[in-house]
Amino acid sequence: MKKIGLILLVFVIMTGFAGCERDTDVSNGSEFPSFTFNIPDEWEGRYEKVTTENRTTYYYTGYEVDGEFPQKFFSITVMSQEEFNEESQDELFLGSKLGEKEEYVFVLFTPLDNVIIDEEKTAEYNSLNLSLSEIEERFHLDE
Fold first, then answer.
1. Parallel, antiparallel, or unpaired: how do β-strands 21-25 and 35-39 relate?
2. 11-21 burial string, b = 16+ CB within 10 Å, else e?
3. d(C-alpha 57, C-alpha 108), whole Å
4. CB of 78 within 8 A of CB of 105?
5. What are the C-alpha distances in Å from 12 to residues 1, 2, 21, 67?
6. In 3D, which of 112, 113, 115 has the Cα closest to residue 93?
């Protein structure tokens, strides 16, 4: 009986993790600390991740213009604490702090508008787009 209980426990744990794809970004192996963002299952085949030295951007791939995906879901930028303190004083600064590690701050930037002109694709994008609280729940600083 204990063996069946253990097997059921392992099954429950494994199926629970099956719903969360883990996408780990290390900012191209630069000096910045890394983070993990858990990609929603619904995004499968509908997003592209582009990482530069200090920024990771997630694009919606359901709408294409001239071979590019113009609509962002959001981007996460890593900046120094000093840079964040200075830039966040500007009233035009639109970032939201997701976390801090060492002397770095992880800042979320969301698009100001939707550039998709197709109603069906706009509806799909809106259904896939995450709220600030959903992004915060899926974002984790790595140890």
1. antiparallel
2. eeeeeeeeeee
3. 10
4. yes
5. 17, 15, 16, 42
6. 112
DSSP helix/strand/coil, 124 = helix
Mean pLDDT of the chain: 83
pTM: 0.78
Phi, psi of 93 (to 5 degrees): -70, 125
Location of structure tokens 């995906």: 69
What does the pLDDT look like over 36-56, one tens digit per residue? Answer: 999 999 999 999 999 998 999
Beta strands in 5-142 (DSSP E): 21-25, 35-39, 47-51, 55-60, 72-80, 96-101, 104-109, 139-141
* pLDDT of 19 higher than 80: no
Tokens in use for 87?
A: 């830039």
Structure tokens at 133: 């609280």
- In DSSP notation, 69-87 reads ---EEEEEEEEEHHHHHHH
Q: How many CA atoms within 13 Å lie on the side-chain side of 100?
A: 8
Inter-CA distances, 132 with 13, 38, 110, Å: 27, 14, 9
